[in-house]
Structure formats: structure tokens, C-alpha cells
User: Which sequence fits this backbone?
């Protein structure tokens, strides 16, 4: 009986061990599957690629509608009849999109309450766009595997994965500090150097410092910054604010920690800073040379004032929107150069518009590699990912298509010349704000279309590139390769 009992106990123990092991495997499998389903739902939910774009669109339209309603109130306008719907809608849109085109006199047609509404929209547009671009960048990173996430984090030291909660305070802090510095520099100069009363100088300094850093280009003066032509103490801080606000929040954060060690900069920072510096320098020099003897722009100024205004105008097409001389009186060569720079814009995840300088740098590197017969694109000991090249080509092509189609449409429906029409359309799509003076003369329907272009120029690049990143799928099959004739 003892032998039977021992055998029975052994069999029972063996059975319990087998069953326990099997249950443990089932629990592990179930836990692993449940964890994978949870991670997939968290990292890449169904149709998640279009949710950031949809949320941005809804938020933009809601704030724009609120701003339009506020600007239509009698308290916002100095006119007895107030602003029309199109005027209020255009002003709210150009403020929120931080563009700078205007169909009214900001300083003459709006009251202090109207100015507060405009400044609030500018600040929301600038801070909101920077924050959203950074947040969407983190969202794109989180959809990759852990190894890829760590690689991207190591490459782009500006944003740490999981640091989303600290992004908004940093952006707000950067904006307020930069705006305060510009305010403290230009306000005393406006007061002591140009005879503006202290209260008015402080009001003007506050308005223009906010407008400059957010690349809005809106001014209290109908002639923009022309009254300060040649004054480097006023113009150069505004130009610096435009550069810093447009270069991109991630780069500002990275430069704060690594500005003395360029070898530690991320590839994005290297491409953006180098390309921006080259474009700024080349544009400023060419504008000074091409307008040096133009009596309607720089020709009638002292030599140092010509250089100051030339540098200022070399910066403004990069989404700044201010002008110190009459843009409409510039030579056609200068206008074409300005159009090209407006189309490019400035840095990513900043307040500037355009296709962005990093996109231009990628396109140049693709062409340069192709010319040298390289099958891959390498720069700064890094290889560009194929999806980055694809996104750059798609964004540039779509932006060019929008500009071309809209320009043809306006040429057919408005009495303005090709240069005037192209300049205004590119300024709207690139959310720059420079104008040849035809926007106030457009019909209300055309002004509304320009406002839609400003919205598209502000929202389009961010939402489009993010949508491409989230929609990336691998095909389960492929077709035979074919080579059509190129060129």
C-alpha cells in the first residue's frame, strides 16, 4: 500500500507540475498578447494618423471664429459701423496664422481692445504652433520601436521622449523672455530717438516685440517700420527676434545646452542653422546690391542706412513680414528673390511658415548625391532616411501646386499683374506678410480666399508631414521594376 501511495503521489506531483507549467505558459502568452494589444492601442491606434491634424484644425477654426466675433464687436473698432465680417475674419486669421497681411489699418481702425485681441491671437498662434509642432514630433517618435525611439532621442537632443509635460512651460518661457528683451531695447529708442511719448513708445514696443518674435509682421503703423528706416537699434532687435522665433523651438533648447559644442548638435540643428545662415547672408547681400541705386528704396539713404535696411529686408522674407522701405517699389529681381525666400520660410517647429529650410537642405542633398552618382544621401556622417526624402518632395510639390493654381486663378479673376499676384499668393501661403499693397484692394471673396491660404500655409506643413508619418505602411507585395525615361 505504501508503494502504491508513493506512485500515486509521484504521478499527482508530475501532473501538477505539467499542468502548472502549461497554465504558466498560457498566462504568459495571454499577458504578452494583452500587453502587445495595449501597446498597439496606445502607440498606434486605429486611424490615429489623422487625429492630430483634425484636432489642430478644429482648434484653429474655433479660436479663429472667436477672434472674428470679438473683432466684430463695437468695442474693437474705432469706426462707428465697426468692422465687416470679411475684415474681422481676415484680421483674426492673419493674427492667428501669424502672417501679417492686412486689409485694415491696425493702428487706426482698431481700439485698444482690438489690439489686445490681435496680440492675444498672435501669441496663441505663435506659442500654440510651436507647442503643437513639438508635441507632434514627440507623437511621431513614440510610434517607433523602443530602439528606434532611443536612437531618435540620441540624435535629436532637443526633445527628450516622455518630456511632453515640460514642453509648454518651456515654450512660454522662451517667448516671454525674448519678447521682453526686444521690448526693453526698442522702447527707449522709440522714446528718446524718435520723439514718441513714453506711453506710446512702450505700447508700440510691446506690440512690435510680440509681433516680431512670433513672426506675425503686423504693425501699428500703416507704413510698417518705415519710420525707423536706417535705425539699427530698432530694426536689428526686431530682425533678431524674427530669426530666433522662426528658427524653431527645439533648436533654441538645444543651443541653450550645446551652443559651445557644435559637434554635439543634432543633424536637424546643423542643417537648419547652416542653411538659414547661408540664406540670410546671401539674401541680405543681394538685396543691398540690387537696391543700392534704386532711388525709391535704398538709393536715397546714407550708406550705413542702406546696409541696415538691406540686412533688415534680407531677414523679413523668411516669414518676418515687416518692411522698412516700400516693397512695391523694389526691382523685379529683388521681388523674385523675395518670393523665393518667402516660399522657403525658416525653421521647423517655430513660428515661421514656408516649406522650411531643413526641407530645402534635404532636397539639395538629394540632388547633390544624385549628381555624384551616390545611391544614398549622406551628410555629417549620417544617412538620410528614405521617408524624410519622400516627405520633403511631397511637401514641396504640393506647396508649389497650391501657389501655381491660386496664382493662375487670381490672374484670371483680378486686374493685377503677374508679379503682384504671385508675390501676394506666396506671402499668404508662406505666412510671411510682406505685400505689394494689393490685398486691401481685392474683392471680399478674394480676401477670404487669401485668408484660407494663410490658414493652409500655417496648418498644412505640420499636419501634412505628421499625416505622412502616421500613415506609413509596408506593402505585402511588390511589382516588377520599371524605369520611365527622365529628362
Assistant:
Amino acid at each position: 500500500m505504501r508503494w502504491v501511495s508513493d506512485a500515486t503521489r509521484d504521478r499527482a506531483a508530475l501532473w501538477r507540475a505539467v499542468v502548472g507549467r502549461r497554465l504558466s505558459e498560457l498566462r504568459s502568452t495571454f499577458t504578452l498578447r494583452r500587453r502587445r494589444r495595449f501597446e498597439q492601442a496606445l502607440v498606434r491606434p486605429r486611424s490615429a494618423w489623422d487625429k492630430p491634424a483634425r484636432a489642430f484644425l478644429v482648434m484653429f477654426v474655433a479660436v479663429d471664429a472667436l477672434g472674428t466675433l470679438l473683432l466684430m464687436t463695437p468695442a474693437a473698432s474705432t469706426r462707428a459701423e465697426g468692422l465687416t465680417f470679411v475684415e474681422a475674419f481676415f484680421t483674426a486669421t492673419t493674427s492667428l496664422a501669424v502672417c501679417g497681411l492686412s486689409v485694415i489699418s491696425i493702428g487706426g481702425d482698431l481700439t485698444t481692445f482690438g489690439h489686445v485681441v490681435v496680440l492675444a491671437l498672435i501669441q496663441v498662434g505663435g506659442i500654440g504652433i510651436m507647442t503643437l509642432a513639438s508635441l507632434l514630433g514627440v507623437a511621431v517618435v513614440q510610434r517607433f520601436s523602443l530602439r528606434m525611439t532611443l536612437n531618435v532621442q540620441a540624435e535629436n537632443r532637443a526633445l527628450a521622449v516622455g518630456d511632453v509635460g515640460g514642453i509648454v512651460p518651456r515654450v512660454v518661457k522662451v517667448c516671454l523672455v525674448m519678447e521682453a528683451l526686444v521690448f526693453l531695447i526698442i522702447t527707449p529708442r522709440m522714446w528718446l530717438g524718435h520723439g514718441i511719448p513714453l506711453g506710446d513708445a512702450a505700447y508700440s514696443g510691446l506690440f512690435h516685440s510680440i509681433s516680431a518674435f512670433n513672426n506675425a509682421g503686423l504693425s501699428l503703423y500703416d507704413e510698417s517700420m518705415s519710420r525707423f528706416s536706417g535705425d539699427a537699434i530698432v530694426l536689428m532687435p526686431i530682425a533678431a527676434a524674427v530669426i530666433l522665433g522662426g528658427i524653431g523651438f527645439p533648436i533654441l533648447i538645444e543651443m541653450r545646452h550645446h551652443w559651445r559644442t557644435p559637434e554635439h548638435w543634432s543633424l536637424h540643428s546643423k542643417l537648419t542653422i547652416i542653411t538659414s545662415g547661408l540664406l540670410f547672408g546671401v539674401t541680405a547681400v543681394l538685396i543691398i546690391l540690387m537696391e543700392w541705386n534704386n532711388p525709391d528704396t535704398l538709393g536715397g539713404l546714407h550708406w550705413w542706412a542702406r546696409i541696415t535696411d538691406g540686412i533688415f529686408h534680407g531677414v523679413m522674407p523668411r516669414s518676418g513680414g515687416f518692411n522698412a522701405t516700400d516693397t512695391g517699389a523694389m526691382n523685379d529681381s529683388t521681388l523674385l528673390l523675395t518670393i523665393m525666400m518667402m516660399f522657403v520660410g525658416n525653421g521647423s517647429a517655430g513660428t515661421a511658415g514656408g516649406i522650411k529650410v531643413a526641407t530645402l537642405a534635404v532636397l539639395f542633398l538629394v540632388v547633390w548625391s544624385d549628381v555624384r552618382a551616390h545611391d544614398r544621401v549622406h551628410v555629417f556622417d549620417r544617412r538620410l532616411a528614405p521617408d524624410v526624402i519622400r516627405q520633403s518632395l511631397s511637401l514641396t510639390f504640393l506647396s508649389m501646386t497650391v501657389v501655381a493654381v491660386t496664382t493662375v486663378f487670381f490672374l484670371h479673376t483680378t486686374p493685377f499683374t503677374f508679379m503682384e499676384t504671385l508675390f501676394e499668393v506666396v506671402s499668404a501661403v508662406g505666412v510671411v506678410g510682406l505685400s505689394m499693397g494689393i490685398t486691401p484692394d481685392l474683392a471680399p471673396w478674394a480676401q477670404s480666399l487669401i485668408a484660407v491660404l494663410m490658414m493652409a500655409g500655417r496648418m498644412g506643413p505640420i499636419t501634412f508631414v505628421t499625416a505622412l508619418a502616421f500613415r506609413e505602411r509596408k506593402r505585402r507585395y511588390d511589382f516588377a521594376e520599371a524605369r520611365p525615361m527622365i529628362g
About this structure: Residues 41-50, 141-159 have pLDDT under 50 and may be disordered.
